[in-house]
Amino acid sequence: MENPGSTPVGFDVNDSIDINESLVPVRDPKPASQSSISFDGLLSSPLLLQEDLKEGCGGQLWPAGMVLSKYLLRQHHSKFLNKTIVELGAGGGLVGLAVARRCHPELPRICITDQPPMLPLMETNIKLNGLSSAVEASVLNWGEPLPDCIPKHPAIILAADCVYFEPAFPLLISTLNDLLGPESVCYFCFKRRRRADLRFMKQAKKMFEVDEIKDDPDMEIYRRENIFLYAIRSKSDRGCV
Ligand SMILES: C[S@@+](CC[C@H](N)C(=O)[O-])C[C@H]1O[C@@H](n2cnc3c(N)ncnc32)[C@H](O)[C@@H]1O
């Protein structure tokens, strides 16, 4: 799924204009490259990430992915130990790989997922970081039945920058509904680019318990960038953030 109107890391956006995506030209794809990311020193051994846009928009770094990774590395790594983790719309796998790098070997395998075209890039990045024993890449198309390889009701679900294409909103809601068990929590980070993005959160709030996460020291900076972090749970569970 391509998203010509979205904003990768390092680009600016005019949030006050509600642009119809079909009217926005596809920008020239940037060439494939490799980044080394320590998340401001939170990882002692930096993550290597191959970026390649040829198979879709997930092939590069996105702002909410960076924010969610930093939040998780700062605040929550101790809570991950021995938990099942599934990442949705992982792109190149930034968030799941960052958590795996920090917590390996004290985790069961993390499952990073996306659509079929992103599978080779996720696998490349797993190998690049020597994390084949800790992370598995799988196809998970939102709105479709969960494949057998995805843990049922994982303890932790990760989703960064997955709100950007309105036709996919009900599909993402449906997959969250399938995945969220009574003990699950989804750490959900998105950058609001268009008014339509708020419709996703409105629907999510009807379906799930949605708590904005406010205990990150950089939260005010993120808010100025229209980046928001939430903990999403099934309605029956009211655990603490
Ligand atoms: C903007 S990218 C974010 C990538 C990554 N999470 C990050 O923060 O860097 C959105 C990702 O969602 C994936 N995606 C979009 N629609 C999807 C669908 N229907 N099912 C599964 N993944 C989807 C895209 O392939 C893409 O990798």
What does this structure look like?
The chain is of the alpha/beta class and 241 residues long. It has a single domain (27-233), classed as Vaccinia Virus protein VP39 (Rossmann fold, 3-Layer(aba) Sandwich), CATH 3.40.50. Helices cover 27% and strands 20% of the residues. It contains 6 helices and 9 strands; from the N terminus they run E-E-H-E-H-E-H-E-E-H-E-H-E-H-E. It is globular and about 40 Å long. The model is unreliable at 1-7 and 10-27 (pLDDT under 50). Bound molecules: S-adenosylmethionine (SAM). Residues 1, 6, 56-58, 61-62, 64-65, 89-91, 94, 114-115, 118, 141-142, 160-162, 164, 168, 171 line the site of S-adenosylmethionine.
What can be said about this structure in brief?
Its EC number is 2.1.1.-. Belongs to the class I-like SAM-binding methyltransferase superfamily. METTL21 family. EFM6 subfamily. The protein is α/β, with parallel strands linked by helices and 241 residues long.
Keywords:
241 residues; alpha/beta; 7-stranded mixed β-sheet; two-stranded antiparallel ribbon; 6 helices; 9 strands; globular; disordered N terminus; binds S-adenosylmethionine
Termini, distance in Å? 32 Å
Average residue-wise pLDDT: 86
**Roughly what percent helix?**
25-40%
Task: Give the radius of gyration.
Answer: 17 Å
Tally of separate helices: 6
CATH level 4 superfamily: Vaccinia Virus protein VP39
The hetero compounds bound to this protein are:
S-adenosylmethionine
Counting structural domains, the number is 1
Question: Which structural class best describes the helix and strand composition?
Answer: alpha/beta
CATH architecture: 3-Layer(aba) Sandwich
Strand order of the largest sheet: 5-4-3-6-7-9-8
The percent range for strand residues is 15-25%
- Unreliable residue stretches: 1-7, 10-27
Please trace the helix and strand order, writing H or E for each element: EEHEHEHEEHEHEHE
CATH topology: Rossmann fold
Number of strands: 9
Shape: globular
